[in-house]
């Protein structure tokens, strides 16, 4: 047994289920053939170049080998979780060829590798591994499934774009109004105009005539009507208090009405 492994786990290797070999400055994957029941293995933050030598560990389910310098991988077929972030995996097609045999793989993390920057990365990975539930820390949702099921566009350069067929709505036919409807609309317009004129007439008042002819009336704005009302009130009050001054007050009244008539003209 490798001395580093022995220092980490000195007990019976058949009883080991979880093995932590992170930060041990390993440049290779040690022989773990005696760990026949190993299920989870941590190899983070080492200097491993090739992730090989684990094919005999058929019980291995989870493998974490982040922050190494891995350029090649050979993995057991029953892996369910694989995290190899921040490594040097470049060729995405070659990588997918080796990952294709992992039919039980549910979670895959390839962030920080040059292969992640290749065109249509997410779609290409899901086409090879449609059983994935989590890719690069993101859940595989229904949208990913739909995109993967659609045929790839060979003319796409950098990004995948989905185009939806535009369905044209049928043009709405404009119904022409009948003769009866036109007559009703015209009548409604006339009624509206008549009511408007009636409202304008209510805003004006009639004032007593200035001339001797009783048929002459002067129309003044309503805001001057209060002066006429005040004149009548003062006239009645003068007649009650001082009947002798009635003649003089009539002179004042005629003068006031004459002023209003002059203002209106």
Describe the protein's architecture and organization:
This protein is α/β, with parallel strands linked by helices and 265 residues long. Helix content is 34%, strand content 12%. The chain contains 7 helices and 11 strands. The strands form 3 sheets. Strands 1-2-4-6-7-8-9 form a 7-stranded mixed beta sheet, with no helix packed on it. It has a two-stranded parallel ribbon with strand order 3-5. Helix 2 links the parallel strand 6 and strand 7. Helix 3 crosses helix 4 and helix 6 runs antiparallel to helix 7. The longest helix has 24 residues. The protein is elongated and about 125 Å long. The protein starts with a helix and ends with a helix.
Topology overview:
Layout: H1 3-8, E1 18-20, E2 40-42, E3 50-51, E4 62-64, E5 72-73, E6 81-83, H2 92-99, E7 107-109, H3 121-128, E8 134-135, E9 138-139, H4 142-149, H5 179-202, E10 204-207, E11 218-221, H6 225-241, H7 246-264
Helix pairs in contact: 3-4, 6-7
